[in-house]
Amino acid sequence: MAENSAKRWRAPAPEERQRDAERTRAALLEAALEEFAAKGQAGARVQDIADRAGVNKHLISYYFGGKEGLYRELQRRWVEHEREFAGEDVPLDEVAVRYLRRCVDDPRPTRLMLWNGLEDGPKPEDTPVAQSIRDDLDQIKKRQERGELPAELDPASVRLAVNAMTAAPMLMPHVVRVAFGLDPGSPEFEKRYGEQLRLMIKLLCGGGAPDADG
């Protein structure tokens, strides 16, 4: 019987091992996003992330080099996703509305950003998010050069203001519920605030308010 069992067993093919590795990495990233968004990087425990993903905690070190590497990989993936919808050829008001839509669809990255600001300790300047911020500033300067934004505006202040306007509903949901009478995750809020956000950005860009007829 041992001989028959040996014949039935076979080592997984390389493509099967690759699929298993991809599934494990994806499960860990999803679990980490949940834990980091709920508790911050400092408060999230490796064991809790592994338990949520249903894998051995040692795989976090194996695939990501530890909790810090897992956190940086989440940042890198967000920045990659950001580049898909926030190119410099997209009008700034449309960029803001797209950010808002993604914040409403999945508030976890926004909550992660809030935790990142609240947690003590030095903020390394070589993170994917830090590089993304510098890229955003370069894009704003290019918008000024081609006349989309007034030249007297400070790029850093523009970047901070747009960031705050898009993230605020997820960071202060109680304000949305009282001021708008709507849930911040509802389509009704996204439509109403998105229209006003677009208008505010256009006014910031010097476009003026639309005519009553238009």
Descriptive notes:
- With 214 residues, this protein is mainly alpha-helical.
- It has two domains: 13-74, Homeodomain-like (Arc Repressor Mutant, subunit A, Orthogonal Bundle); 86-214, Tetracycline Repressor, domain 2 (Orthogonal Bundle).
- 73% of the residues lie in helices and 0% in strands.
- Helix 2 (14-43) packs across helix 7, helix 4 (58-64) packs across helix 5 (67-85) and helix 6 runs parallel beside helix 9.
- The chain is globular and about 55 Å long.
- It starts with a helix and ends in a 10-residue tail after the last helix.
- Residues 208-214 have low confidence and may be disordered.
Highlighted features:
Arc Repressor Mutant, subunit A; mainly alpha; Tetracycline Repressor, domain 2; disordered C terminus; about 0% strand; about 210 residues; 2 domains
